[in-house]
């Protein structure tokens, strides 16, 4: 699975580093790349990771995914 989504709370390179680090810790995440300027995150994952897990983790670290 691959998805690009927006995380409005991204404000600097530290946010980017935190998000990438936390996402990589989810079992099943293949790649995670956040962009400071666009506030977009591009993520690739496989089982046992799920979109629900990703959303929950980002919410827990105070970088919730933008509502669509
Ligand atoms: Cu920051």
List the SSEs and their pairings:
Layout: E1 2-6, H1 13-24, E2 29-34, E3 40-45, H2 51-60
Antiparallel strand pairs: 1-3, 2-3
Bound molecules: copper (II) ion.
Copper (II) ion binds next to helix 1.
Description:
There is one protein chain. The chain is of the alpha+beta class and 68 residues long. The chain has one domain (2-60): 2-Layer Sandwich (Alpha-Beta Plaits), CATH 3.30.70. The chain has 2 helices and 3 strands; from the N terminus they run E-H-E-E-H. Strands 1-3-2 form a 3-stranded antiparallel beta sheet, covered by helices on one side. Strand 2 and strand 3 form a beta hairpin. The longest helix has 12 residues, at 13-24. The protein is globular, with a radius of gyration of 11 Å. The protein starts with a strand and ends in an 8-residue tail after the last helix. 15% of the residues are buried. The model has no long low-confidence stretch (mean pLDDT 97). It binds copper (II) ion. The site of copper (II) ion (CU) has 4 residues, from helix 1.
Instruction: Write down the Rg.
Output: 11 Å
Number of strands: 3
Shape: globular
The ligands found in this model are: copper (II) ion
* CATH hierarchy: architecture: 2-Layer Sandwich
Number of domains: 1
Top-tier CATH class: Alpha Beta
* Unreliably modeled segments: none
The chain-level mean pLDDT equals: 97
Q: Strand order, biggest sheet?
A: 1-3-2
Largest sheet properties? 3 strands, antiparallel
Query: What is the H/E order?
Result: EHEEH
The helix count comes to 2
Q: Give the end-to-end Cα distance, rounded to a whole number of Å.
A: 18 Å
Query: Can you give the helix content as a percent range?
Result: 25-40%
CATH topology (level 3) name: Alpha-Beta Plaits
Strand content: 25-35%
Question: Which structural class do you get from the secondary structure elements?
Answer: alpha+beta
């Amino acid at each position: 699975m691959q998805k690009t989504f927006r995380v409005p709370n991204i404000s600097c390179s530290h946010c980017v580093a935190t998000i990438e680090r936390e996402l990589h810790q989810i079992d099943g995440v293949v790649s995670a790349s956040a962009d400071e300027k666009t506030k977009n995150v591009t993520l690739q994952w496989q089982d046992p990771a799920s979109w629900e897990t990703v959303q929950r983790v980002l919410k827990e670290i105070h970088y919730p995914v933008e509502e669509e």
